[in-house]
Every structure is written in structure tokens, then in C-alpha cells.
Amino acid sequence: MRAVILAGGKGRRLAPYTITFPKPMVPVGDMPILEIVIRQLKNYGVSHVTLAVGHLAELLTAYFQDGARWGVKIDYSREEQPLGTTGPLLLLNDLPENFIVMNGDVLTTLNYGELFRTHLRSQAALTIACYRCNTRVDLGVIEFDGRMQVTGYREKPNIPYDVSMGVYVFNRDTLASYAPNTYLDLPSLVQDLLEQGKKVKVYLSDSEWLDIGRPSDYEVASQRFQMLREHFLQAEQPLESLPGVAE
């Protein structure tokens, strides 16, 4: 099974940590975030990882080399100019029918195997792993209709919303109409797929998921990883042989 990890961003929100380190190399516990990701993918049967690199790529290639240390094949695709969150995939001409794509700074206990199996069963063009968040509003929220008549009042409610976890499963055909070196971000791709009538599915997960966008988030993530290290790095039997899984 193949995974492409997007590891070329500059991680500006996490400065100053990312001034001299690419964001995926920032350590969580005793290892870089990206090493945790690669170990997890290996546990779920991924045998080939492509790192899409750009900013400070030399540090990534020097650390991960060919992946032999982790029992996976690692190769690299370098974007010479920013191509967005999906554009780097257009540089790859050897992608299997279905493959995982994810950000290189994702800290989660997501079951990648179940995500992949769900994608195959649905025959979707694209599956997006999502996490349900809740934000507490510390004010009274008024609901009213078009006649300005109050229909409800909620005091300090929790508002649920669903966010992308930065983990996806692609069908290769989703990229067929785009030329290499095209700038393409994920929202534009999703909109294009919807306009074409293609199936885009959500995989809603209740797994642990931590955003590491800001220094305060990074501190929380480091603490959670130390507390739940075995949970983050637990192994699963590799995926059984299914259509679309093989390289």
C-alpha cells in the first residue's frame, strides 16, 4: 500500500520552532512528528512512502534516507515552487489506483486501515477523514426567523462542527484532468469533483487528533503523546489483500 506525505510547507504558524526545522521534523516526545506518522503507516501495512518535500528538504532526506530503518521504502518528490496542498501529487506518475495522502504534521490515533477499507467499499473518488470539534460560545445565542421573531435562546452553547484531519484516500482518476506543475489546493479539487458529479465521502473518526498549528498546540500535543505513547504507536495486522491496495 502506498502513502504520499506532504512535507514541503514552511509551518509559519509554528515559528520559532520551524525557522531552522521543517515542521514535520519538530520533535514530539523523543522523535519527529513525521517519524511517528511513518511508524503508524507501517503498522497498517503501508510499504511505500513518498515524501513530497520543498522547504528544508535536505534535513528530511538526511534523516529518513531510503526508509530501511523503519522497514518501508521511502522516496522523494521535490516541488521547485509552491504547488498547493494537492499539486505535488501531479508530479508523481507511478501512483496506484488508490492511495493515502496526508500532511506530515498529523498527530492522531486514526485507524488508517479502516479508513482505507471504507474508501474502497464506497468506490469514492476521494475520502476525507474528519474529526468533530466543539466550540463553547461564552454568550447567549439568539435564534430568530426572517420576521425578526425569536425562535430560540441558547445560553453558552457548544457548537459542533466537522474539520478535515489532513488525511485522505485518493483514487488515481481524481487527478487525471490536471497537468503536472499545476497549482492545485484541496478545496479547489473537491469543488471540481462535486461539479463533475464525482463521489466525495467523509470518514468521521472519534480517534485522538491534535492540531499542531501553534506553539501552544505543540505543547499540548507533546504532553498527550507522552501520556498515550503506546496508544499512538500500537500495531495492527497489515491490510488483507483487497482490490486497489497493491502498488
UniProtKB/TrEMBL annotation:
<dbReference type="GO" id="GO:0005978">
    <property type="term" value="P:glycogen biosynthetic process"/>
</dbReference>
<feature type="domain" description="Nucleotidyl transferase">
    <location>
        <begin position="3"/>
        <end position="223"/>
    </location>
</feature>
<dbReference type="InterPro" id="IPR005835">
    <property type="entry name" value="NTP_transferase_dom"/>
</dbReference>
<dbReference type="InterPro" id="IPR029044">
    <property type="entry name" value="Nucleotide-diphossugar_trans"/>
</dbReference>
<dbReference type="InterPro" id="IPR050486">
    <property type="entry name" value="Mannose-1P_guanyltransferase"/>
</dbReference>
<dbReference type="InterPro" id="IPR005836">
    <property type="entry name" value="ADP_Glu_pyroP_CS"/>
</dbReference>
<keyword id="KW-0321">Glycogen metabolism</keyword>
<protein>
    <submittedName>
        <fullName>Nucleotidyltransferase-like protein</fullName>
    </submittedName>
</protein>
<dbReference type="GO" id="GO:0008878">
    <property type="term" value="F:glucose-1-phosphate adenylyltransferase activity"/>
</dbReference>
<dbReference type="Pfam" id="PF00483">
    <property type="entry name" value="NTP_transferase"/>
</dbReference>
<keyword id="KW-0808">Transferase</keyword>
<keyword id="KW-0119">Carbohydrate metabolism</keyword>
